[in-house]
Amino acid sequence: MNRSTLFALFIAITTVGLVVVGTIWPVHTAQAMAGAGYSFNGSSEPQSAVTNLLAEVGSHDWNAAYESLANRSEFSEADFIHDLNGGYPSLRTYATLADFSVQPLHVLEDEGKFRVNLRWSSVVGVFQESRDLRVAKENGRWKVVWPLVAEQRVPPQVIPVNYLRWDVIYRGPGDDWAAQNVESPHVRIIDMRPIDRGNGVSILGEILNEDTVPAFVTVKSTLIGKDKEVLGTEDSFDKISHVLLPKQVSPFRIDFPNVALSQVDSVKMQPSSSLIAASADPVIEIENQKLSGAPHTSLTGELRNESGQIVNIMHVIGTFYDNRGQLLWVGDSYENRALLPNLPAKFSINVPVDIADKVATFRVVTSSYSSTLL
Amino acid sequence: MQRVNTSEFRAVPLSVIFLMAFGIHAPLLLMKLPLKSYDTNFHIFFASHYLHHWFEPWNTKWYAGFSQTTYPPLPQQWVAVLSHVFGLEMAYMAVQFIGILLLALGAYRFARLWVDERSASLAGLAAVFLGAECFLVYSAGQLSTTFAAPLYLNALPYLYEWLRRNDWRALLKGAALSVAAAVAHHATLLFGSLLFAAPVVALAFLDRKSDEEEAASKKGIILRSIVAAGIVGAAIAVVLLPFWIALIKYPVTQVPIPHPSRANYILSPQWGLNYFVVPYGAMIIALPFVVWRGASISRLRPLLLGFWLAFLLGLGGTTPVGRILLGRAFEVLTMERFTYWASLLALPFVGLLAKECIVRFRMAGIATLTIAAVFTCALAVAWSTYKPADAVDFRVDSTAAWLNRDGHDRYRYITLGFGNKISRLAMMTDANSVDGEWNSGRMLPELTEHGGGALTSSKYFGKAGLDALSAILHHADHYGLKWVFVRDPYYEPLLVFAGWRRVDDLEDRTISVWGKEDVPPATPLNAPQIPPAWQGLLWGTLPIGSSILAMLLLLIPARKRQEQRAIQPASSGDELIFGRLAS
Q: Residue A349: which CATH number?
């Protein structure tokens, strides 16, 4: 074999070798592109079977994920997709699997059990889900037994609704120049308290719509330092229910990261409101609320949609008070499944452990999003 | 071993190659096909800024202000100049067409360094059909890359001439073209010097004694290499001074943005198709020949090594080479440009293979090569239709008109679900945005800290993209961000819960306009990145001046020499074919 041949073989073999290395041990970027938890081991190991299944779910390769299940004869692929994506349009429908972790609970010779924690990325933030997956060995290959949670369906029915609604006629472009628009609703901050949360300052408060018309409200806050300098201006963003019907109260929380309360001399609050068309529909009933203790302190309960309209996304905001009625915390959560008429759905709002001990009472408000476009 | 007389087969004249390029690419460019690509509108947006503010590189239309000195300006400036005659879109097509013609010429001249006249002419012809070129022009819209590489290919034969024969005219021409290539695209020169220039320097060493009358010494070649590198380096340092200042003062430290060209093409075959099969096309069949022939002939080995390195880097995350050799740059660069460069480096081999096919199989060979070339070109051109940058085409005129009326342009805006239409919108409106498509130019911390790309496509970047969107909406007041144009209802829940209200609908209710109360009008950000006036002056004169100087220098007649002997990788005249492969 001459030098030329050796050189050509060296290039060819090295190239193939590098491709093999890059495929068995892909660089981080390539692994991320191939799926959150790609593993080259196939399903020869029980944990790899779980990991590969979740990687396929992450890349929305539903067919491959469904085909790899041990119990796929028990349900259809559509049922499987609905379990993960939601049967009705919701946050889940367009969420992507940001990452996941797999924790073995027990593994025997031909079966095992794993706890998987899934972190889904949605347009309003990350939500988490935990499931226990059983794996079984079939013909020398490990397969996941999927614990299908069938989503409830709404039976055909007629739901009478009777709710208040406010319509607004604004000044039109052809109106006389002196014509006045309708006045903005009167809103008032009825409670406000800054707290130090270690990595920043949070302004907690409540705002009341004092008017007889609905208001679209936002609260801005400016922190003034000891030398009268502005430390920062933030607004309540999504930590508030922006639409307030007459006499309704919404909590709000405004976060200032990287500011210490000791730096703050005063706080300037700027509530604003504008008149909007609004309705009391959908009416959401909140039931069975209770505060669970450590280690995962949270406020749990059930939401019941008493309207006939499907609510695609529910936002639940909880206000927590101590035994003197002082504001302690404002927390929130988004429900990742659609809220169907008259079918209860559980919710949970995390409460910081240090605050949970002092909570005496709490109050929950909701806001919703429904769309035919999702 | 079969012997064939090749004397009846002549080189393809350059005029025929140019006519081919005209016949294939002129109709496609007249149809403005590149407008459907990913980046074409981005380049036109830059050109639009030069058209209106030639000496002011601070562009307020994106990112609440960014400096265009962060991107070498030559092709965009020429688009701006030609737009006075053709308008911006056709000026872009004209500049792109010049790039295609220069590539055909450059591929021929570069190939001529390595192979005989006939093979080189076929390499030039192959450049017209090159899949990677068509992919970058019609699908990726990479004007700068496809303009810089041909300039560089044309510069290298001059530099070779300088190294071998100490010809100062060749040095001037080669240096001027190299500088023009650098001001067209910095990365091309940076990596090109390793992938393209190093093999040419090695070739000059190997060939130093082939010309008995003008044999060059090793020392002389080394010295002349240093002189050439010094002159080109110094010229680039001066001509692109504002670029270097911006790069040094504000290095790109933002969180890397994922790009599918860094995928493993076996684990993610859809990206393998996109970044390997389509750009290489029928050249994939020629790869074993490239390796075999490159290894067999000693003077082709430097070219083979250059090709191999570019090829491995072009494979993105399929091999660990990119990560190891480029380090963090691997997470910043897009890798399809390496595939393009690998294709260019393979062209001399392709020319050789084509010649041998024609000699051996005559019409059958010509027919096969034609089918392979046309299929490669057609697939890469059609790829922008099979896999368009924007799945749905829509007009942004109404959005621009809405922003331009009733004082709406006193506030900044972003779009959601507009894809790469944001460049076109930015050209049509007077309003400024906090979003944009030039990731390396952005400085707003909300955008640089998360690892997402353009806000308008946030959802495609997963959590990173949505975090960036949320962060910028949090600070809407600070940036005077009052308007959000939504073409994808996916984003509506965030706007609803974050306190934005739907205020209007456009384009038959397919675009909704969302506004936020109490946002103060946008004020110019007093960014330290704003280039001083003298940098604007340099930026407006030196880059385009360097290209004009290159054109003038090319008019200097070449030094008369005795008839140059054709540099043949094998014996001329009667030639061994294919038997070499088996020997």
A: 2.60.40.10
